[in-house]
């Protein structure tokens, strides 16, 4: 069972930054509600498969070795969590950043809203 206050690190490490699809899918199955709605770049995707596909497209759009990390400690309020993130790579953090707001049903993330400020020219909103 997952604790909400540990979600931010686990979500980025085990889902967003996980390149192995089987490992990423296992983490999605463990942490994400079957009817999840993920909104990012003003577009929504639904269900675990939609989230998995969106993450794969996002990973393909990132420069090699770039990965989002939690920028500040998450704020947990009831069944919600909010945390800022930034993109980092071999030379340290970039200017690309954003935030994530999550609503849980029990310990499963059912609604995820991600914002992004893509400041670097080589980064753009992935098409999903």
TrEMBL record:
Record's protein name: Nuclear transport factor 2 family protein
Classification of source organism: Bacteria, Bacillati, Actinomycetota, Actinomycetes, Micrococcales
Organism: Microbacterium oleivorans
Cited InterPro entries: NTF2-like_dom_sf
Gene3D superfamilies: 3.10.450.50
